[in-house]
């Protein structure tokens, strides 16, 4: 049985989303897959940007349409993680970002949540007609690489940019 469900953000989740942001800021962690939550001045501005990102006609210049989901515990309703599905790739995403970005709050890591979140997001990719999914991670992020491999990711290559090494994986969906 699933321990998580993916839901679209709504204003009802404001308190949980802002608590999620607080935990990441306190720990100095990277907030991947959150549609810019780290830099948002307020929930309202972030939510407006999230809504605009959903469609090609309203997405911010330089970005691609994307859907961001909250990964909510089916047991207690806690916001465990966030995951962002980009509907298409631009040059930057093809090299470094991929179709999917995600994060799990520090207090909930190493419990299998990222693997389950990615599996659920891949089902959403099928609905978006994305059948070949690129996922990338920093070479030093062993947990993320394991998450990708646990979801049948096939390693393609590494891209070196300065001191950063990005690993690229593909997942083919049936």
From TrEMBL:
GO terms for molecular function: acyltransferase activity, transferring groups other than amino-acyl groups. SUPFAM superfamilies: Acyl-CoA N-acyltransferases (Nat) (SSF55729). This is N-acetyltransferase domain-containing protein. InterPro entries: Acyl_CoA_acyltransferase, GNAT_dom. It comes from the Bacteria. Pfam families: Acetyltransf_3. Residues 4-174 form the N-acetyltransferase domain.
